[in-house]
Structures are given as structure tokens and as C-alpha cells.
């Protein structure tokens, strides 16, 4: 698989989720975790049709895209290549702290 594949996957995810809908994003071992403004605008079926996506899950204010070990970090790196998306990933900790203080979820 070439790096272009991961860039394409990242672009497709952003297109379906909506760039303006994404507040921030991070990843764990298997999932990309997006903090989004409006979860209802995301078409789960369209996300699940994207190459390498194993499923989606929404929990604790995060829209989680399941990609699997080895794939998630490559898609995340491709997403961080865009300046706007890079700034959003850095703001994630502040957003989590804000939501925790508002009682939206606990760690």
C-alpha cells in the first residue's frame, strides 16, 4: 500500500464528516477519534464504504472510525499533513478538558 492510499482515505473521511464539522482529532491503536460539532450530519454508511474502514462508533462525544492497527497511524499521519487539520489535532486536549469540566463525559 502506498502513502497515497492513506492520503486518499483521510481526504474521503474529511469529505464525509465535513471539514467544518471537525473540531479536533486523535488516534488510539485502532481508531481515529474525531470530536465533531454535529454528529447527526455524518453519513455512517458512506464512512463504512471507505477503503480500510472496519466500522464506526460514537461514544463520549467522539466519532470513532475503526481502521485497525497499522492503518490508523498512517491515515492519521496523512491527515496531519494538512495545516488546518494539524492545528485541530493539537487543540484536542483543550477541548477534552473543556468538555470534562462541563460534565459532558469522564475519562
TrEMBL record:
Residues 6-89 form the PTS EIIB type-1 domain. Pfam families: PTS_EIIB. It comes from the Bacteria. One of its GO terms (biological process) is phosphoenolpyruvate-dependent sugar phosphotransferase system. It is found in: Cell membrane. Coiled coil: none annotated. The active site is at 28 (phosphocysteine intermediate). PROSITE patterns: PTS_EIIB_TYPE_1, PTS_EIIB_TYPE_1_CYS. GO terms for cellular component: plasma membrane. One of its GO terms (molecular function) is protein-N(PI)-phosphohistidine-sugar phosphotransferase activity. It is a multi-pass membrane protein. Keywords: Cell membrane, Kinase, Membrane, Phosphotransferase system, Sugar transport, Transferase, Transmembrane, Transmembrane helix, Transport. PANTHER family: PHOSPHOTRANSFERASE SYSTEM TRANSPORT PROTEIN, PTS SYSTEM ARBUTIN-, CELLOBIOSE-, AND SALICIN-SPECIFIC EIIBC COMPONENT-RELATED. This is Negative regulator of SacY activity. It comes from Halalkalibacter krulwichiae. The lineage of its organism: Bacteria, Bacillati, Bacillota, Bacilli, Bacillales.
Amino acid at each position: 500500500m502506498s502513502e497515497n492510499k492513506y492520503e486518499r482515505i483521510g481526504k474521503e473521511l474529511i469529505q464525509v464528516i465535513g471539514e467544518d464539522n471537525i473540531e479536533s482529532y486523535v488516534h488510539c491503536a485502532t481508531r481515529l477519534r474525531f470530536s465533531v460539532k454535529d454528529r447527526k450530519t455524518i453519513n455512517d454508511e458512506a464512512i463504512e464504504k471507505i477503503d480500510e474502514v472496519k466500522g464506526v462508533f460514537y461514544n463520549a462525544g467522539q466519532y470513532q472510525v475503526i481502521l485497525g492497527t497499522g492503518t490508523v497511524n498512517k491515515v492519521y499521519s496523512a491527515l496531519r499533513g494538512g495545516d488546518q487539520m494539524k492545528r485541530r489535532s493539537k487543540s484536542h486536549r483543550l477541548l477534552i478538558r473543556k468538555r470534562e469540566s462541563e460534565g459532558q463525559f469522564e475519562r
